[in-house]
Amino acid sequence: MAGKKEFFQGIGKIPYEGKASRNPLAFKYYDKDKVVAGKSMADHFRFATAYWHSFCGNGSDPFGMATRPMPWLSSGDVMQRARDKADAAFEFMSKIGMSFYCFHDFDLVEEGDTIVESEQRLHEIASYLLEKQEETGIKPLWGTANLFSHPRYMNGAATNPDFAVVSHAGLQVKNALDVTIKLGGQHYVFWGGREGYMSLLNTDMKRELDHLAAFLHAAMDYGRSQGFTGWFFIEPKPMEPSKHQYDFDAATSLHFIQSYGLEADFKLNIEVNHATLAQHTFQHELQVAANAGALGSIDANRGDYQNGWDTDQFPNNVYEMTEAMMVLLKAGGLQGGGINFDAKLRRNSTDVEDLFYAHIGGMDVFARALLAAEAILNDSAYAALFTSRYASFDSGQGLLFEKGELGLTDLYALAKTGGEPAIRSGRQELIENIINQYL
Ligand code: XLS
Ligand code: NI
Ligand code: NI
C-alpha cells in the first residue's frame, strides 16, 4: 500500500495462531494451507468478500441514517470515491488473506445520469481494479448486475411487463458481463430480487417466466461468444423485495433451469439466509442443488431465529455449519464456486476492526465445521449408521427395485409373503450426539 492512504490503520496481516490464541485479530481455525480431505482449506472455501455489504453498506436502514464511518466514501468526486473504495477493499482483502471478491456493477462505481456516463465510469474503474488485481492476485469470484435498485426496475427487470425495461436490463447485463470478463471473474450471478410479482392480478406469470428464460439464454450466448467459460449461477430467494420471487428456492430454480434447457450452463448459488426465508435449512438447499449436480457456489450469512428476515448476519453457528459441511464434503465440494460473505455488520458495529472480526469469525466457523465434518464422516460411527439404514437396497429384491426392475405386482407379492416390516429406529439423537462430540 506504499504511498496510499491506509484505511484500516493499526491492523496488519491477519495470522493463523490456532485455538489457544487470545488475539482477536488472528484466525483460530482457518489455516489456509492445512490439508483437509485432500485439499487445502483455501481451496475448499475460496472465500470472497461482498463489495456491496463491506465497502458500500454504511449501516443505514429504513428507519435511520448511516452509522458507520466509511472514509473511502468521503471524496466529493465520484471517480475518486470509487478508487478510494477499491483501495479500501484491496487493503482489507490483502490484510485478511481473501483471494476473491464479488460485485454488482454499481457497487464498483455509482451509476451515472446517462447510459454513456455509466459505461464510461464502469470502464474507468475496471481498469483501475485490474491494476489492483495485478498487484495483489485477488480477483472476482463472480460479478453481477444490480437489476433491483433503480426505479425503472420496480416492476421487474428481465420479467418487466414493459419491453423497454427488459432491453435496458439487457444493456446492463452486457456491460456487467464485459466487466466480469475483463477482470478475469470466474462466474456470473443472476439474483432476481424484482423478478417476481407483488400481485397476480396484474401479472402474466407464464409470459414473464418465458421472458426470463429468453433473457438468460441471450446473456449466456453473449457471454460464451466473448470467451466466458465460467458458470452462470442463479441465486434462489423466495421473497424480499418482491412478495413472491420466481427463483423461490433450489428446487424451483432447478425446475426452471431444466424446463428451459439451461442446465448445461447454469448452476446454483445457495445463500444461507435465503434458505431459511424459504422455510428450508441451508443443508436442505445444498443437498437439493447437489442432487442435480448443480451445487455451484455459496453466499454465506445467517438469519435470525426470532424474526426470520434476511438479516444477513455473519455465520456463527458451528453445529449447523458442521451439518452443512457434511453435505458439502459428501457432494465432493463446490462446482467451481466459493464462499462469498454476503453478510453485513450490524448497524451498531462501527469500529474499524469490526469488519475484520466479522470475517475472521465467519472464516473460522467454516474451518472449524469443515474439520469436524471430515472427522465425523471418516472417523466416527456415523458413516456406518447412515449407510446401514439403506442396507435392504444393497442386494436382493431391494437392489432390483432400485434398478427399476420390479413392478407393482412384484411389490405386492413380496409384501404378502414378507409380513409386517420390522420397526427400525432412525437413531437421530444418537447421530446428533456424535456430531456434538466432534465439535
Ligand atoms: C440479496 C442477494 C444479493 C445477491 C447478489 O438478498 O443475496 O446480495 O447475492 O445480487
Ligand atoms: Ni441475500
Ligand atoms: Ni446473495
Could you explain how this protein is built, in words?
This protein has 439 residues and is an alpha/beta fold. Helices cover 45% and strands 10% of the residues. The strands form three sheets. The protein has an eight-stranded parallel barrel, surrounded by four helices. The longest helix is centred in the C-terminal third of the chain and has 26 residues, at 354-379. Bound molecules: D-xylose and nickel (II) ion (2 copies).
Key terms:
single chain, alpha/beta, TIM Barrel, 2 domains, 45% helix, globular, binds D-xylose, binds nickel (II) ion
Bound molecules: D-xylose, nickel (II) ion
Q: Which architecture of the largest domain would the CATH scheme give at its second level?
A: Alpha-Beta Barrel
Report the span from N to C terminus.
Answer: 39 Å
CATH superfamily of the largest domain: Divalent-metal-dependent TIM barrel enzymes
Structural class: alpha/beta
Rg of Cα set: 24 Å
